[in-house]
Design goal:
The protein is of the alpha+beta class and 185 residues long. The chain folds into 2 domains: 77 residues, SP0830-like domains (Alpha-Beta Plaits, 2-Layer Sandwich); 99 residues, Alpha-Beta Plaits. The chain has 6 helices and 8 strands, in the order βαββαβαβαββαβα. Pfam families: DUF1697.
């Protein structure tokens, strides 16, 4: 079985699309996924599967969520190579640089590589002193102050880029990579 990470977009946010991680682990286990582990409540799942197509896995998990919980959500499926690339290409930090205190570094996982004209729309958006950088289907950003003051949001990113997105802070991203590494052993 191959090892994967699933990132769920828009669950357990502001009291909407509530899914308890214990229930999610159980449902994924019943659906045939192996070694299912979750990290925090925002929908981060490390698991093993016989399927090798990340697109098919995303569709299957989205269907499972719709059937079991009634939610239409987007699920991003990544593997170890994807996550190593994310960690290696951050223009604002190295893998070993974790943040303390106020979280200012974020990684946004995009459903596909955005079109150039749409990336320009995001660069041109009114985002204050926040910094953004693209690397294929990943958007890195560094906030000038705190997240609650930032104009950058999944809604803004999705509306400008015309695709789906889910965001994790840098510490969570590195924790998920570490979970993948431990599960691979």
């Amino acid at each position: 079985m191959a090892l994967y990470l699933a990132l769920f977009r828009g669950i357990n946010v502001s009291g909407k699309n509530i899914i308890k991680m214990e229930s999610l682990r159980k449902q994924m286990d019943l659906a045939g996924y192996g070694n299912v582990q979750t990290y925090i409540q925002s929908g981060n799942v490390v698991f093993k599967a016989k399927e090798t197509s990340k697109a098919k896995l995303s569709a299957a998990i989205e269907s499972l969520i719709k059937k079991e919980y009634g939610y239409d959500i987007t699920v991003f499926v990544l593997d170890m190579a994807d996550m190593n690339k994310v960690a290696a290409n951050n223009p604002y930090a190295t893998r070993d640089e974790l943040e303390e205190g106020s979280k200012k570094l974020y990684v946004t996982f995009l459903s596909e590589i955005p079109q150039k004209e749409n990336t320009q729309k995001l660069y041109d958006a009114s985002i204050g002193d926040d910094s953004i950088e693209f690397n294929d289907d990943i958007l890195y950003f560094k906030l000038a102050t705190k997240a609650s003051d930032s104009k950058l949001s999944n809604n803004l990113i999705e509306s400008k880029l015309k695709l789906r997105a889910t965001t994790r802070n840098w510490n969570t991203t590195i924790k998920l990579l570490t979970m993948l590494e431990k599960s691979e052993k």
